[in-house]
Fold this protein.
Amino acid sequence: MRQRLNLVAAAVTSMVAIAFIVPLALSVRSQARDGALADAEQAAQGVATGVAVAESVAEGVSPATVQAILDAAGNDRVSVLLTNGAVIGLESHPDATVIAAAAAGAAFTVEDERGATVFIPVVGRSGTIVVQGRATTSELRSGVLAAWGVLAGLGVVLVLGSVLVADRLARTVTKPVDELAGAVRRLGGGDLDVRVTPSGPIEVSQVGEAVNMLASRLESLLRAERESMADLSHRLRTPLTSLRLQAETVTDPNSRDGLLAEVDRLEFDVDQIIDDVRRSGAGAGPAVADLAEVVRHQVAYWSVLAQDQDRKVTTQVPTGEIPVGASVDDVVVVVDTLIENIFSHTESGIGFNIEVTTVDSQPLLIVTDDGPGVGSVGSVQRGDSGSGSTGLGLDIVRRMAERSGGRLTILEPPEGSGSRIEVRFGRPAVG
């Protein structure tokens, strides 16, 4: 915007300068020409007056008398054409037609490539004597180039001055706009504490006030949402407590332990929700987790249930660390969700395999099973799994993978040969 305003100022000033300077330059040239012609005419008129006086005193004017008049005038730009055709003074070769017109008693000016000549006839008793005043081309243009140079310099100074002033004025507009754009980008990036100081023209200042109002409104809405989620999570503790008391009354030890384990897991998830909604927007540092360690831990957790259902579990997990750009809790949710889908949507006895590796320097989690498959790629859409479930699980996995800088890929082998789900995580942020 700043450059465009400068260009507009330069264009407008240039047009105004041209509109004034061009006529002024033409006027300067005309004045120089008129001045040179006036000088030539004045010199010729002085000689013509002397010739007329001499003609009135005597019968005719001799060349010597004319030469004396020219010497007295001290002007070398004047010549005199006598009645006998002799020329005294400045050498001149006027056209015969011009001489005839002057001899007929007409006074006029003739211009050619060498300059301009003023013809003044002097009618005497012996005939018509023609006095010629000469102005050369250089005299007609004397001072014109210098004046044009001054005018051109003045035009350049005016244009540069207008651009400088326009640039200073443009900064009062573009600086607040740049600050406003930066604030909006930060707001879009999740920084709800950003505010701008309204400045600049009234329209830009009003936009700044509107952005501040928007940021405040978003902050209040998100705060209300977090408090609502926290309140809802707290309310869930009451039925969980009741569920725990009922589970403890189960007489079968295996069933009781399984139910209590699930209740413990639900309570952990509820506590995690409360912590997450209260920590959201708190500006935590960069998230990082060891994918290999999380997989080893969670597979060990699920192995007990897998043995009860006669499921074969195999893993290929490297011994070293596989850091990913996600929190440990997020990675745990991803692994548990994928394993839980297998338990929920395949029959007992269906085995599965979990592999952790890196592809193109990105951590990769691969979960395969021998079941009927996930149904369709649409399983990653909420509310549509194609298999009777809500479809929330894979959608949660997708969002967590994308939040780390990765993606979720569902591969569909031939019917009846199981499913393959790949979760590619982003690497931890440097610093």
The domain at 286-424 is CATH 3.30.565.10 (Heat Shock Protein 90). Confidence is low (pLDDT under 50) at residues 281-285, 381-390. The two ends are 36 Å apart (CA to CA).
